[in-house]
Amino acid sequence: MAGKAIWKGYINFGDVNLPVKLHTAIKEERIQFHLLHMGDRVKLRQQMVCAYEKEPVPVEAQVKGFEVEDGKYIIVDPAELEQTAPESSRLVEVHEFVKTVQIDPVFLERVYYLEPDIHVKGYNSLVAALKEMDVAGICTWAMRKRYYLGALQTSGKVLRLTTLRHAEEVISVKSLELQNIPLSEKELKIGSDLIDQLTAPFQPHKFENEHRKKLQMLIDKKARGEKIAILRPRRLKPTTPDKLLQALEASLKKVA
Amino acid sequence: METRAPGRIPSKPPSKRESEAAVQGIWSGTISFSLVAIPVQLVRAVDSGRVSFRMLHDKDYSPLQRRMFCPEEDKLVPPDEIIRGYEIGPDRYVLITDEELESVSPERSRTIEIIEFIDMEEVDPIYYDHPYYLVPLKGGEKAYRLLVEVMSRTNKAGLAKFVLGEREYLVAVKSAEGALALITLHYSEEILPDEDISPKEKKIETEEKSRIKQNIKKMMSDFNPEKYADRRRKKIMEILSKKVKKIAPVEAPQAEEEEGEGPADLVAALKESMRKVKKNR
Fold first, then answer.
1. Closest Cα partner for B186 from B148, B226, B129?
2. Which of A11, A225, B40, B209 has the fewest CB atoms within 10 Å around its CB?
3. Which residue is closest to A118 within chain B, CA to CA?
4. B120, A199 Cβ separation under 8 angstroms
5. Nearest CA to CA, how far is B11 from chain A (Å)?
C-alpha cells in the first residue's frame, strides 16, 4: 500500500486542472542504535555548548547568526525569517515540459505518488500523454512553508511528483579537479568489451538487504552473551597504471 | 535517537566553501570490477543549498558546538567515552563496536565491488536515493579514467553493494562529465506499491488525451534547472544584505581549539573515538 496522504493540491497547466493527493512512495526500515556513555550505559543526548566557555547553553540563550566574515555575525530574528516562508497555496504550477532523459538523476530528491482527488477526470489521459511523449512537467509549488521545484512524471500507471534539487545545490564535477589521463585505444577497447560481457538486465528484486538480517543476527547473538568473531575487512591491491592493460586482458579472458 | 536523515550516507559537518566541501571525504576504499581495483574516496555531490546560519551564545556571541551530554552524571561526554548500543529492553542495551559492525560483511566494508553492469535507462527513477561522487586516490587515477571512459562509451553503469557504518547500500556507479557518480538506490522492498491509489476506472478519453498533448507540445523546452532559483534562499539573502548595510556585525571571542566539531552522527562519533583510542595505545 502507498504511504498515507500528506498533502492536497492541484496540477495546473494550459487548460488542465487536476486535483491530486500526495502519498509517500518510499519506506525505509533500519536497525536503530543509540549513543551511550561507556561507563554507566546511560543514553546520551545532544547538547549545544559554547565554544568559548565550554559550557552547555540552554535553548533560550541561543541566537541565530549569519557569518559575514570569519568570526563576525549578523544576528537574525526568527520572526524576520518567518516572513520569507511562502504563503499557503494548493497550486502545483507546471511551467514547461522536458524530455525525461534530460533530467540528470543528481537532481532527483524525493518521490511522491499522486492519487486523483475528488474526481478521476483527466488523470488517466494525463498519465497516457506523459507516457507516450516520454516527458516530465517541471513545476513549482509551496507546501508546508517551503517552496518546491519538482518533476511531474508517470510510471505508466500513476502520476508521480518528484522534488528536484536546485541547481546551486549540486556540486560541479569541475570542482573535483580531476586529471585527464591519456588511455590507449587498446585499453579502451578491451575495457568496453569487458563491460559488455558483464552487462545484465536491471533486476532490483534480486538484491535484498542481507546485511540488515546479518546485523540483527549479530545483535541477537551478543544479547545471548555469545562471543563475536572479529573479521577484518578485505582490502584489494590497487591496479597500478602499468598493470592496467594486463588486468583488463585477464578479466576479459575470465568472463569470455 | 535518530541522528541522520533516512537514506543519507553519514557525512561530516558541511564546511563553508564548496571547493572544500567537494573534496571532503566521507569514506575511502576501493572500487573494483572484475580484476581491476581502483582506490577511491567518496565525496558529496550535493550541498543542501540552505543559507547557513550558526547558533550563537547570546551572552558572548561565541558559536555553539554540538556535544554529547550524559543526563545521569550531568556532564559532557568526550568522544572516546561514547559507544553504540542496541536497545533490547527499557534501559537495557547490547553494545556493538565498530569492529563487530565491520565483521557483519567484511568483504563489503572497504570495497565497492561492481557485480554487473546495467543500462541506466532500465532503472526506474523511483530507485534513486542520494548522489555522491567518487574521486581517485593516489595511484588509481588511470584505472579511474578508464572506468569513466568505457562506461561513457558503452552507456552503462556499474551495480554494486557496499557497507558503510550501520548500513548496506545498493548503488549505481555511472560516468558523469568525466567523473564517477555514485547514486545510492532503494531496495525494491522499500518502494511502496501504488496499486491502491491508481484509479479503478482505466478508460482513457482519446479526445481529452490529444487535447492534453497539444497543451504539452506548446510547453516543450530543454531542462535547465538554473532557471529556477531557490526563492526562499533569495528572499533570505535579500533580508541579510539589507541588514548588513544597516547594522554592524557582532564579533565572537577567540575560542581555544579542541577536538573540532562535535560528533555529527553515530559513525563520525565512533570513528573519532576509535582514532583517539588508537592514538593513546
1. B129
2. A225
3. B199
4. no
5. 15
Counting the structural domains of chain B, the total is 1
The neighbouring-strand residues paired with B85 are A34, B95
**Shared-domain flag, residues A91 and A136:** yes
pLDDT under 70: residue ranges of chain B: 1-24, 49-50, 257-281
Q: Is B52 helix (H, G, I), strand (E, B) or coil?
A: coil
> A254 and A149: one domain?
no
CATH of residue B121's domain is 2.40.290.10
Amino acid B70: pLDDT = 93
Count of domains in chain A? 2
Low pLDDT (below 50) residues in chain A:
none
Q: How far is Cα A80 from Cα A68, in angstroms, rounded to an integer?
A: 17
**Which strands form A72-76's sheet, in the order they lie side by side?**
B53-57, A62-69, A72-76, B250-251
Q: What is the pLDDT of residue B6?
A: 39
Residues 6+ apart with CB under 8 A from A67: A73, B16, B52, B54
Q: Domain of A126: which CATH number?
A: 2.40.290.10
Cβ count within 10 A of residue B147: 26
Closest-CA residue of B relative to A256 is B34
Asked, for residue A19, whether it belongs to a domain, the answer is: yes
Residue contact A1–B218, C-beta within 8 A? no
pLDDT of residue B280: 38
Q: Is 0.85 exceeded by the ipTM?
A: yes
| Residue B185 within any structural domain of the chain | yes
- Residue B257 pLDDT: 62
CB distance B64–A49 less than 8 Å?
yes
